[in-house]
């Protein structure tokens, strides 16, 4: 007799991932579809929403094809905050504008800060207006592409788009809404109608639910497209990093999740709202939770870039050579701002810097410097979280970058903090499966996904990394004017 199972699917920046999971948390199967965002100009990242649905249907059919399970619920998540605008018939008016890696909305941020008041936005919304926020991206479309905006009536993100295609429901989760600054009031827990009318006129903003709430059930039409049983419940879903945190149990007060992926993301759970000009204050994925979050614009994206440059080497080879290079990468120091930087720098015109290069440096040194740069960026964010009042009691790591021991060890050495690793670190799709399972059964994350290892800092590397971190913190302000000038040249 087929066993009952749930499906979790996450639409990420560079791939869509799906998992089939038993109601006891056992990972039965996983599948991946890789994709590449479109880059129509400097600082612009977009994606056709048809990719999201096409890959979802391919994943569910692959996961369920053997016929040895009965799927009883579906969980979804996706990168965000993204802005997909559609007309009243759910036809996209243009490709989706992606999250903070897309930096086109700087002029709209400047205008909205003058119009609404920068301090007022932080007080009401929990976060400053940055290129991460969805509101300025909507304003950019309205101002720069009025012919497209004139047709726009609805707002979607990857997770809510999947929900719409699966169930017909037009909903969004509270957490995703809280990243639509300045449209959402974190204190009222609802859209702020006056600012929504000002920033997103004509858009019928979706009703709000919590990530683990059932948005609806799979329609007959969606069942035919996906191979899923009709009538099973679908979660409302959320942004990928928050699903990642749920997948490893990092949602208790004092927890900090580190997500090792194409970008690095940090989520700290706090007992009450905290704000910072260099971080994002949000509501959590679960009712009653609050977060102070940060996100680097690149991390794994830089190592992928290096792998592509060295076409005859894969990540395993480069990681081995980086381990041989040793702490400090033989005197190389990198700023990982290859797509600008989000927190805590908040500078879309920042650029990558590699300092200390000589003719004797190897690709292993460069790869090591990239891993260390990410770790220095994590430490910079951690210090910002604590300066804002955060109290980090436990660090939990998740994501593809945790599969080998080197990267997590470097981060622990540089931050001086242990990191818990759970048995399953596949990430957001597994978190989506957990929420789906909770729609139909009791599912406790400590039973589903116990701790398997703790990475501890190595004292022998502390002095070297302390010196390098001081240089890292100096390198950005000392090169800022130069890289801003270069960023201007790149846009011509």
From TrEMBL:
Its EC number is 2.7.1.-. Keywords: Carbohydrate metabolism, Kinase, Transferase, Xylose metabolism. GO terms for molecular function: kinase activity. Residues 6-245 form the Carbohydrate kinase FGGY N-terminal domain. Residues 257-438 form the Carbohydrate kinase FGGY C-terminal domain. It is an enzyme of class 2 (transferase). Pfam families: FGGY_C, FGGY_N. It comes from the Bacteria. PANTHER family: SUGAR KINASE, XYLULOSE KINASE. Belongs to the FGGY kinase family. This is FGGY-family carbohydrate kinase.
